[in-house]
Design goal:
Distance between the termini: 19 Å
CATH class: Alpha Beta
Radius of gyration: 19 Å
Number of domains: 1
Mean pLDDT: 92
Largest sheet: 6 strands, parallel
Number of strands: 12
Strand content: 5-15%
Oligomer: single chain
Low-confidence stretches: none
Amino acid sequence: MATEYHAEHVGSLLRPPWLLQARDAHERGELTRQELREAEDRAISELIDLQENAGIGVFTDGEARRESWRAGLMESLDGVRPATRTMRWYRDGKELSAQETLTDGVAAVSKVSRKGDLSNIEARYMAAHAPGAFKITMISASMGGMIWHPTLSAQPYPTLNDLIEDLAALQIEEIGGLIDQGVRWIQLDSLAYNQVIDPAQVGGSRAGVDPRTALEAAIAVDSKIVNAVKREHPDVTVGMHMCRGNYRSSYMAQGSYEPVAERLFNEVPVDRFLLEYDTERAGGFEPLRFVPRGPSAPTVVLGLVTTKVPGLENQDDLCRRVEEAARYVPLENLAISPQCGFASGSLGNLITVDDERRKLDLVVSTARQVWG
């Protein structure tokens, strides 16, 4: 599906400073929910213009209504309570201090349920204002380990799989509601595979599972969600994004797709795989040899343009890298994008809006040069 889109971006965009100030004012009780919603609408309108001016063909709202990409677990569920989470993040090869890393989190303490309708609000606005195709991004239920705690979650969910089963059912229901509203493009963000790609990440999971078990669980959940959508709505485009972490220009994992490629590409039937490929941390293109061929083959979106640093890639180098990937996947089944969002958290990466604009322009101009 949507094979004609050879230039894409992952989802999040830098929030304007005045929007962050409005969110702070709302938390202090100085701004009503409606006034905050109006500020979000204004910001999203500007972000849509940014994408349209760059020539991006499939739009997002920049995830401007969210605190982070984790909103589906951290902001949209009842049955959870705040819980500190420790993760190791790296920038320029050095581990960040505790003051710089993400420690906020939640843990499931009772049966989870959806609260509010954040994704529906996002969809309604985009349906009314996007000048073309648009997608709704969401964290996959396969990431349920982020909110499972062996002690706090033990009563409602004795095992991580018990929690993920409930999360998957909620996500399938949520996606069904979005499709009923006219959404025709869904993107699942799933970093669960990092536990297999980089075994050092196993210790970062509360579940503490071994890589083979982690792969089996992630494949099972992601394929269940995608198959449920495709069974009822074969015309809906479903994408999956994978990266190695993206917070304030830092990362948390590294390694080739090789340990997950054969099963992931053949058992999770998405239309588009959006894969980080901006640095050597992601390995080479060889794992793409496992991508299926034929009329229903997925599009592989190569995340070649980094969102972590301001420097702009050389376009000739990008074209050469696309040619290298085409040794494993037919050129018509390739596309290009940034490796991840520009603002996975509300503070965003350590770049400017002008940097962001230039990078989106580069993605589009490179796609035009390669595919016409």
